[in-house]
Each structure stands twice: as structure tokens, then as C-alpha cells.
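User: We ran a pulldown and think these components assemble together. Before we commit to crystallization trials, I'd like a predicted model of the whole complex to look at. Sequences follow.
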Amino acid sequence: MSDRRRPDQPVTTLEELEAEPIVGREGSLYADAWRQLRRRPMFIISGVLIMILALMAIWPSLFTRVDPRDCNLADSLLRPSGEHWFGTDVQGCDYFARTIWGARVSITIGVLVTAASTLIAVVLGSIAGYYGGIVDTIIARITDIWFAIPTILGGIVILRSIFSTRGLLQVSLVLIVLGWPTMLRLVRSAVMATKEMDYVDAARALGVRDFRIIRRHILPNAVAPVIVYATITVGVIISAEAALSFLGVGLQLPAISWGLMISVAQNRILTAPHLLLFPGAFLSVTVFTFILMGDALRDALDPRLR
Amino acid sequence: MATTLTRDTVGGRPVDPAAPLLAVEDLRVEFRIDAGIVQAVNGLSYTLGRGETVAILGESGSGKSVSAQAVMGIVDSPPGFVTGGSVRFRGVELLDLAEPERRRVRGNRIAMIFQDALTALNLVFSVGWQIGEMFRIHRGVPRKQAQEKAIELMERVKIPSARERAGCYPHEFSGGMRQRVMIAMALSLDPEILIADEPTTALDVTVQAQIMSLLAELQQQTGMGLILITHDLGVVAEVADHLVVMYAGREVEKGPSLPVYHRPAHPYTMGLMDSLPRRDVHTERLRPIKGSPPDLLAIPSGCPFRPRCRFAADICAAKEPPLAAVSAGRVSACHFWEEVSRERSGD
Amino acid sequence: MGRYLIRRLLQFIPVFFGATLLIFIMVWAIPGDPIAALAGDRVLPDTVREQIRDRYHLDDPLIVQYGKYMGGVFQGDFGDDFRGRPVTDLLGQRLPITVRLALLAFGFEVVLGIIAGILAGVRKGGFVDNLVLVSTLVVIAIPIFVLGFLAQLVLGVKFGWFPVSGVQRGLLSYLLPAMVLGSVSLAYIARLTRTSLIENLRADYVRTATAKGLSRRRVVGIHTFRNSMIPVVTFLAIDLGSLMGGAIITETIFNIPGLGRAVFEGVQRQEGTVVVGIVTFLVVVYMVANLLVDVLYAVLDPRIRYE
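Assistant: Here's a predicted model for the assembly, 960 residues in total across the polymer chains.
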């Protein structure tokens, strides 16, 4: 990452969390945060929505009995009605069912990619932040290289060139590869700031081994901004997958993805707007929910913003 | 330097030649926060004469900084509000002035310097620019001349190589030099009063002494009044003419500095004196004041110092001690001030 | 300042070669037949295959391949399409259009974003503040292509205020796409400015400036403004990357014949070499732009010039 100094002031979403770590007595900050969170409407609303979405992803049949692939060409492009709540698409598939099943793909990719990127970022970031020196410089340069390639562009190139079939796994892999640098930068700066704290020196003086120091002293404090950013990232990844699928380099048919559905709907927005609106709405609400949750978490965990 | 008291009006109103430079009377400032109302300043009074130095002493939370902010008119509002009392600058009531008038007094007639120059100065502008700003804004001086004046001021506060360094940024100076920059900035328009809020707290001891002697020298030259706010008794000893000791937003002792030093008439003042390490008195342990400053949301009834006071008795919980006259020009807010001052006789 | 610049440049060089190498490897050095991957479903006659092998030096060892590839880049050679037409031609045609779109979007997002952020920040908790917070959140959440279609439908078709396709109507045609393109960044910039301003308004130097008798307008407009802009400038550099990605989507939706659409067409038509060529070009531009922003950052914030 460039040495461009991240100023001490927080910065929205992305870099906001790169500022000083939230240092608190282990446990008390989170207990405090939990109490705060429970009361906030933002948290409650987004929490409920996330649970609904998770349910949709895991048990789509809870929401619809119809099989999204049970399509009847005769029923092509029907408007929303009592029988087909969201109407039907070009091939006569029930759109409501397709929209519900689309949640599975989005949530899965969102969570999978975020979890994996976070893991990589935490491991590499702690090493880079804690040890500094040449290790840090190398990791920093490598991250810089990744940063130099904008996500969508990189996604297009990789997905087009490398993969002939693009399923959930391939798309996830690409997003992980493109996503870990930002998370890493966050972890690294949080670790570096925590490292300066006196109690770390004390632990070192007592002869505690590095790994243990990182695990028990540094990480718990550095982890708060990571939690916030990871939550927001889920939303961002879901959006990115949809964008890539929309451009034709993401998931392929017959996968059910909101991005794909919108891509197909492109040519018919005037004649059959419902094809665009329903997946579009679901997509937007999903991304919105995760970002809202991230915001709520950040407000609760950052003592300075109170 | 010529006498500074040549300005005849404040905010359009004529000054009263007989009035002291600054007269604060029963000042009250409260902060309205979610948890309740905090009475940060609860009836503070003192006067400052021409060429005098008043030191306001107290721990954090005693209200000393807030009271100075109230004089300047820069209390963060909301949540802070000046709810009562009077602040008279040369006889003119500042609290009655409209904001544009107060702004003309600020920096121009009454100036203030702060504790940590590194955060108090703007880091993206050069020191010359920031000092020159006073001339450019208050007096409409063009840029080049303002820069020249800034250099003059920097030389006056003894910053070496002032001309070359005027274009430098605050982070390029050492702590002591930065503080001089702030002093230069404050003095630029020849203010009649300088308020120094913990000017040396962030500095090394040797630098502290330099800054304090610089302030004293400048005061000699200009005849301005100096209000020194600090929690550090050592800093104040040689410089102050009068001491005002504050606790929980009130003044608990007030008087000429030497007598208060040698014979404190309030347990808190005594505690402060005792907690100083002294070369001439051999003790084995330092004697801090037991307990901690009160939670301003829940000030103890009666005398606020009661929980920490070894002279405390029942009356202290029941009745808030009035400001008793100890001697000419000295007051103490303690029911037992006579006992307290007796402890030190012969010292 | 000079030392800072040199250090920046030294950091830039490995990143430059690293990124281009990465792209190069991803395209030409993966196991399997790169030509087949690039061509997708298209079946290429052997003669064309031979030409391609020759053109891209595929028979040379990897290092040499990369060297010649980079040599080409420095001379402005970004490859050809499958009919032998150089990508550079395409760049020449399409770039000006995309530049116009991007500049418009950039101006839109910077001006409106900063203004919105300032208005929200100076009166924190007020009506404008909440309005800005909610609307930016909504804009960030709605994916740009959904936003684009909605804008097309509502503002373009229903209300007829803007043209929705092509660039025939001159500047007017660029307006709606530019607004859509800049919308997400506008939201980020507004939030960023707001947060930064709020932080700065609480800073000690504000109290000093007020104590100097400066007017509120000056304290906010000059003293805090400079400091507040620093993180925004940092963001703008990164933003350029998302602008590029967003341009692909926006140009596709609004049928603007720019570079972004060229990428999309390349993907659709399985013109792998075109895609790679344009992406390489864009990445280089992105890196150079970041370098320039780093320099601008040093101008704004004197603290880092001397690190």
C-alpha cells in the first residue's frame, strides 16, 4: 500500500476503519456495544432482514413451493397475478420462485468470499503488521499490485481467460482473489497501531511467544474494524457478483442469479419491466441490509463517534 | 513596547478607566448532556488588574479551562451554556455583546494560548501564514506585510532563524518552539489580556522554565494582564500575583499568591501544596490528596471537597461553606479555615 | 518534496511491472491453450492460429514473451483483434468518448458530493444531514446497473428529460449516463466529506482559530476545509478504478460507444485479445493516475512531504 498517510480522522466505510484500532478492555467494549446495538432500530431492522435472507438462502422452499425450473413456454412473460406473484420470465418460469432461489447464490457467494478473504487478510495482515520490516514491505508491494487492478476489470480478464465454465466456485475464487487486499490493509493498520500499545511491550518483556501475543492481545483489539468491514463487504461482494453476471462474465445459465436475471431482462425493460424490477429490488435490499448492519456495528463499536 | 491601553472602546462602548482589566463575577457555565446537567463553573469570581498575573489552579474537571473559554466566548455551545454571572472587560460587560462584537475582542484585545501546540495549530498551513492571519483578518494588512509582521513576532518570541522558518509547518518545530509560535500568534495584535491554558503541561521541564520566563518578560514589556491556568503549582510559584484555587467548578480559595502558598486556608489548597515534592522538607513519601475529583453529575452536598477532607465534620455535609474573609484580599470556602491556616503557622 | 517524489516513483516501478506481469500471466501463461481460451467458442482456422502465435511470440520463452509484450505496451501496441486490426485503433476511436463521460461524471460527483458532505457535516444531526445519510446509503446499496436501468426508465422514457441511448444529441446524451456513473462515487464522497468535516470540526485547531477571533465561515471554509479534503483526495484516486468498471456497465446500458462498451463487446464477441488489450491500457492509466494523486496529496498535506 502506498505510504500515503491515512489521516487520523475516520473515513467512510472503506478507510474509515483503518484508523486507530478500537482499544478497550477485552470484553467490555463488546458488552457495551451489544447493549447499544440492542436498542438501535438500524441494527434490529437489518438483523431481522438478514435472518430472513439467510432463511431464504438455506430453505427457499419455505417461501415458495414452486420449482423455479419448472417452466412452461406457454406461460412466457406473464404479468404478476394471483397465480404467479412476480409473473413469469421468457421461458415461462415462475419469477417469484426464481427470485427467491436467487438469494441462495448471492448470500452464499457473499458469505463465502468474505469469510475467505477475511481469513487470508487476518493471517497475512497480522504478520505484516506485527513483524514489519522486509516481510511487511513484500506483502505491501504485493498488495499494491493487486490494488492496481480495478475489481471489475480484473474480474473480466480472469473470468474470461481462465475459466471455461463459471460456476459458484470459480466466481467466488476470483472475487476472493480480488477482494483480500482491502481487508488486509485494514487488518495491517489495526495490528500496527495495537502493536504500539504498552501492554504488548509488557507481554513481550515477559517472554510471551509472538504467536500468542498476536492471538490474545493484538487480534481481539484489531478485530472490531474488521467485523464492521466484513459485514459491509458481504454487501459489496453480492453487488459485484451481480455486476459480473450482468456483464456476462459471472455465473452462467442455468444458474439462478439476480445479476443474470437482470442481464436477461435488459432487452425487455419496456415491455416487461417486472423482469428487471423484482430481482433488482431484492438485490438492492440485500446489499442495503448488509451495509446498514455494517454502519450500525461501526457506530456501536467506535467509541469516538458517540 | 508602548503602553497597550490606548483603546478607548470595547464593542462600541466606552471603557471605564477606573475598572480593573478583567472582572469576573459569579460566573456560571453548565453543560447539558444526555446524562444530565453538569455545572462546570459554579459561581467563580476574580479580578485581574493591569500588569498582574492571576493563576487559576485546579485538577482536571475543576472548571478552570471552561471558565477561561467563557471569558473568551468560545464555550462549545451546545452542549455548554453560560447561564449566569458577569465578565467585565475594562468595565464593559462582555456577555452582553453581540457575537460580531465579541469576535472583535477575541484575539485582538483578549488572546488565548492552549496546551498542546501540535494539535492547537493547524498543520496544513505554515506558521508564518497562521501568525500573519491575525493581521490580515483583523487589520486588513496585505499578505506580504502580514508575513513581515509575522517574522517580527517570531523574532520577538526568540525563535531562531525566524525569516527562514516562517514558511515552515508546525510539525517541523520542537515542542517549545511551537509553543512560542502560539505565543507569537496570540501577541500579534497587542492584546490587553493573555489567557494561557496549561501552556507548559505538554513540555519538558527545562523548556517549561524558558516559556514561563518568556511570558513574564513579554508581560513586563507590554503591561498586559496574564491569566495562567494550570494544575502545576511549581510553574505558578514565581510568576503569579494572585491565586484562585478551583474545585468542582467553584473557587475554594483566593488571594495573593505568597500568603496562600505559605499559609493555605483551605484543605484542598493545603493538599495541593503537600503533594508537591519539596527539596527543603525531608519526607519519605509524597502525600497525595486521597480520593478523586467528584463526578460533576453527582456533586456531594454541602462542601464538594468533603469526602476527601481530613477536617470534615457534620456541618460540612449540611451546609455549603461561604467564602469567608481570611484577611485583606483573601477568601476561603471552608468552615474550618482558621484551623487549617493555623496548621501552617511557623512554616 | 523531491525525496518524496523519488520514493513514490521507486514504489511505482515494481507495482507497474508486477501488475502488467500479473495480467500477462493470467492471459498467456496459464496451463492449457491460451489461444483457445481467448477465442472462446469461436473456431479459428489454422492460418489465423499461426498468425497469432507469431504476433504474440507464443513460441518464445515466457520471459521474452513478457518483455516483448511490455515493449509493445511502451510503444502503444496493445494487441490486435482476431482480424488483425490493432487495439490502438479502437482506443483512438473510443477513448475520447469515454473521457468525456468520465470527466462529466467526475465533475458531477466531486462538486455535488463535496457540497452535500459539507452541508451535512456542518449541521450534524439536522434535516440535511439525515437526508444525505439516507440517500447516500440507498444509492450505494442499489447496484449501478439497476440504478442505470431505473434512471433510463424513469428519467429517460417516462419523463423524457434525457436521451437514453447513443451520443447523437451531443452533450445532452452524456448527462444521464454521467450522473449514473458518478452516483455511487458521489455517495461515497459525500459521506467521506461529512465524516472528515465532523472530525475536523472537533479538532483543537478549530478552537484556536475561533479564539483568534476568526469568523465561523473562515474557520470552516478555510481551516477545516483543507484538512477535510485530504481523505477525499485519497479516495478519488481509488475511485478512478471503480469509475472504469462502472463505465463498462453504464456505456452498455446507455449504448455509449466508448471504451467501456468496447470491453463489453469484446466479451460478447469472444474477442479475448481486445479485452486484454483495453484492460491493460486502463490498468496503466489507473496506476499513473494514482501516482499523480499521490503527488497532489503531498501538496495538500505538508506533513508527508518530509517522511
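The two ends of chain B are 41 Å apart (CA to CA). That may be worth checking against your pulldown data before setting up trials.

User: Thanks, that helps.
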